[in-house]
Write a structure and sequence with these properties.
This protein has four helices and six strands; from the N terminus they run αβαβαβββαβ. The protein is α/β, with parallel strands linked by helices.
C-alpha cells in the first residue's frame, strides 16, 4: 500500500470560525463598541416608556363575577301594588320596577326607603332588616 492510497477512518472536522458573527471579520458587521456591538443586546422599546407613564386601573383582576341584587324601595312598591297583592320578582318586572338582565329576572333586594301602609305578601327575594320591620308593621308577610 502506498501513502497516496490511504483512506481516512473518520470524517475531517472543519475548523471552527473565529470572530463574532461568522464571515464578516473584525467587528462582524456590528459597528464599533456600545450596546449594539455586544452579544445579547436588547433595546428597551420606546413604546414601553409611553405605556409605563400611563396611570393604572386598579382592581381590574379582582372584579366580582357575582351579580348584585337589583334594589327596589318600599316607596316604589307602595305606589305600584294594591293592598293584599303578592309581590314576586316576576310581578316587579311586569310593573317595570326592575329590568331583566339579558332576558333573565335578576336577584332582587327590598330596601326600606319610604313607608308601607298596605298589607302585602313578599316572596322570592331578599329583604333588608329595616324593610322587614316596616312590612311586618304594616301587617304584611314574608315567605
Amino acid at each position: 500500500m502506498q501513502i497516496h492510497q490511504l483512506k481516512r477512518t473518520t470524517k475531517l472536522a472543519k475548523n471552527q470560525r473565529i470572530g463574532r458573527g461568522g464571515k464578516r471579520g473584525t467587528t462582524s458587521g456590528r459597528g464599533t463598541k456600545g450596546q449594539m456591538a455586544r452579544s445579547g443586546h436588547k433595546l428597551y422599546p420606546e413604546l414601553r416608556d409611553a405605556i409605563k407613564k400611563l396611570p393604572k386601573l386598579r382592581g381590574y383582576r379582582f372584579k366580582s363575577f357575582q351579580t348584585k341584587a337589583a334594589p327596589v324601595n318600599l316607596r316604589a312598591i307602595e305606589t305600584a301594588f294594591s293592598a293584599g297583592a303578592i309581590v314576586t320578582p316576576a310581578e316587579l318586572v311586569a310593573k317595570k320596577l326592575v329590568r331583566t338582565a339579558s332576558g333573565k329576572i335578576p336577584a332582587i333586594k327590598i330596601l326600606a326607603t319610604g313607608n308601607l301602609t298596605k298589607k302585602l305578601s313578599f316572596s322570592g327575594m331578599t329583604i333588608s332588616a329595616s324593610a322587614k320591620e316596616k312590612i311586618e308593621k304594616a301587617g304584611g308577610e314574608i315567605k
